[in-house]
Amino acid sequence: MFYGSVVWDPWLIVSQIMCLQCLYYLTLGLFMWILVGTRVSRLTLVYFFDYSTLTASTITGWCTMSSFLLTAVAGAGYMFLLIERAKKCLDFSATLYIIHLFMCLVYGGWPSSFTWWIVNGTGFAIMALLGEWLCIKRELREIPITRLLDY
Question: In whole angstroms, how far apart are CA 139 and each of 24, 132, 133, 134?
Answer without folding.
Answer: 24, 10, 10, 9
